[in-house]
Amino acid sequence: MIIYLTTYEFRQVPGLKHIYFVYQEYFICAISYNSVYYFLYIRCTGIIFLSINRCLVICGPTSIVTCWIQKAHTWQIVVVYWTVPTLISIFVLKDTDFYYDSLETMEVVVPRSVIMVGAICCFFLFQLLRNPCLAIDHRETCKKEETDHIINRGYTKKYKV
User: 20 in helix, strand or coil?
Assistant: First the structure.
C-alpha cells in the first residue's frame, strides 16, 4: 500500500506528474495498481496462515503438522509467508494494461476485465485458504459431539409426559 500511496503523491507533484504521464509505457501505473493487490494477498494469506496455526494448536496440539510448524525456523516461515501470495498473485501481476487518462487529472484507467480478475482472485484465495480452518473446526466439533454422547449416554433419563 505504501507503493501506491507514494506513487499517488508523486503524481501530484508538477515535475513528476509530467514524467509519469510521458513514460507510462514503463509500467509506473501498473506497478502502482498491482502493488495494492499484491500486498492485499500477502495480508490475507498471513491472516489465514495465522488462523490455521491457531486452529491446529488448539484442536490438535500434538499433531505432526502442528509440531512441524512450531519447530520451523524463522526463515522457513518467512519463505512460506511470501512465496504463497507471490505465486497466487501471478494472475494479477501479469496485467499491465493501465494508463493515466490525462495530464491534468492523472486518474488511473483500468479495464473492467482486470478489475474482475483481481476481485475473483481475492475471492478464491480467501475460499481456498479458509477451508482448512473449517475442516479442522468441523472435525473437532464432531469429536466433541461423539464424546458428549458417550459420556451422557449412561446418565440420560427418559421422562414420560
Answer: helix
Q: Residue 113: which H helix or E strand, with range?
A: helix 112-153
pLDDT value for 145: 52
20 vs 14: CA distance, rounded Å:
10
Average pLDDT, the chain: 75
Helix axes 28-59, 74-88, angle to 10 degrees: 130
Q: Identify the H or E element spanning 134.
A: helix 112-153
Q: Is the backbone of residue 95 left (phi > 0), alpha (psi -120 to 50) or beta?
A: beta
- The grid cell for 12 is 501530484
- 73: pLDDT strictly greater than 90: yes
Q: Residue type at 140?
A: E
Q: HSE-up of 10 (CA within 13 Å, CB side)?
A: 13
pTM: 0.65
At residue 108, what are phi and psi to the nearest 5 degrees? -80, 130
